[in-house]
Amino acid sequence: MVTATAARERAYSVAATVADPEIPVLGIADLGGGGGGQVDESDRVTVTITPTYSGCPAMDAIRTDVEKALHDNGFSEVSVRTVLSPAWTTDWMTDTGRRALADYGIAPPSPRREGGPVALALSVRCPQCGSPDTREVSRFGSTACKSLWVCTDCREPFDHFKSL
Amino acid sequence: MSHPTTSLAGAPFASGGLVSAHDSAGTPTSGPADRASLAVYALRLGDDALVLAQRLGEWVASAPQIEEDIALGNIGLDLLGQARTLLAYAGETEGAGRSEDDLAYVREERAFVNVQLVEQPNGDFAVSMARQLYFSTYQFALYERLQHSADATLGGVAEKAVKEVAYHRDHATQWVLRLGDGTDESHRRMQDGLARMWPFVAELFEADDLVRALATGGVAVDPSTLRAEWDAYVDAVLAEATLARPTSTWTARGGRRGIHSQPFGFLLAELQHLHRSHPGASW
User: Fold this and answer.
1) In chain B, % of residues over pLDDT 70
2) What φ, ψ does residue A87 adopt, rounded to 5°?
3) Smallest Cα distance from B251 to chain A, Å
């Protein structure tokens, strides 16, 4: 018999390792603010997750993966709830998450610019060669959360996790 | 882990603001009628998002550039995400057991309550960008206020979506500037696109008793209060793009009452046919 706190920490550490299916180097905890969780006396787990974008198609996969990971680790009753508020922002992403993105070839998000509705990245470094000499090709990229860039120095195209 | 969990899926009718506002006005407090109104309001916003998502999806694989296939697909995906939450909430608030899929796939044309702007055919790229500028400017102003709704679910949807819609509005703005202040041909077609979508603008700002009552309770936003902000933004974009504000005065009406334009039936047929051909199918 473990205490409720220990059970909660164990459940969190299991859920935290579930990877974003579209960016497999990121655990959902790396996205930051990655929801809350509760474990009651009977080891029933409630996990709360929040989408990066309203239409994020990875949400269903993440929900299923969280349930499965917890089941596999001995939690028999698991429910996953989705909440929208407070709205997720790239500012919540952890430093570990940002480094993992860059190592994977995706330029991490810049801090959001205050005062303007659309967050503009002033300088995005190429994740391949490190050059700051890059340009935005399209504000909408391979997934809802990314924009498409190209490096003027090494000529490689790359994804940028855009600020939200 | 640290931020508070907010119950959205099972949120009760957000009664705090509504009850106190109505009490002070001496009018009845929340009851079945209020819930029915709330369901209709959520359905209106959800239908706007769903129908425009469907139209934008038609561009995928036929936009002028591959980047634009992706951009319009992504904007549609954001709208579809908003639509899913709003339709699910409308069904739950209505209390008749209808799911988001029931509402999207088995309602008849006259039961859809979207504005007519979002159902208009894509036309050429300039027509689609005019439609997007008009709609995203409206939706941005709406969500900016709706995020403070007394209803936690509507507020949550708006708080989340307003940041996405800022990107949509910016995208449409960039194209209107580029086409308007581009070549003679692009200028002519952008001006034409603006004119063709113009008759569908006024309907965005029409209020009826239902929305006014919800707005009084702090649940909804009275759309007529958004017009000045919309005009200021759109006029500034048009001026910079060397384009003229259209002057036609005929306006379409009736989308909120289920009156739709002729192309809408074809859109619905494409949206619904798979579900209707294979009811209850899943994978």
Assistant:
1) 89
2) -70, 135
3) 31
Q: Is residue A88 part of a domain?
A: no
**How many domains, in total, are found in chain A?**
2
Minimal CA separation from B250 to chain A, in Å? 33
Domain with A56, as residue range(s), is: 4-82
End of a domain among A52, A82, A112?
A: A82
Amino acid at A45: V
Closest residue to B156, CB basis, from A84, A138, A142:
A84
- Chain B partners within 8 Å of A164 (Cβ): 163-164
Contacts of A37 in chain B (CB under 8 A): 1
Mutate to test the interface with B, among A12, A90, A140, A164 (most CBs of B within 10 A): A140
Predicted confidence at residue A113, as pLDDT, reads 59
Whole-number pLDDT of residue A58: 86
For the segment B33-37, the average pLDDT, to the nearest whole number, is 90
A133 located within any domain: yes
Contact check, Cβ <8 Å, B1/A55: no
Question: Which residue ranges form the domains of chain B, and what is each CATH number?
Answer: 30-246+253-277 (1.20.1260.10)
- Interval B54-63: pLDDT, tens: 999 999 999 9
Specify the CATH number for the domain of residue A23. Answer: 3.30.300.130
Q: What is the mean pLDDT of residues B39-67?
A: 96
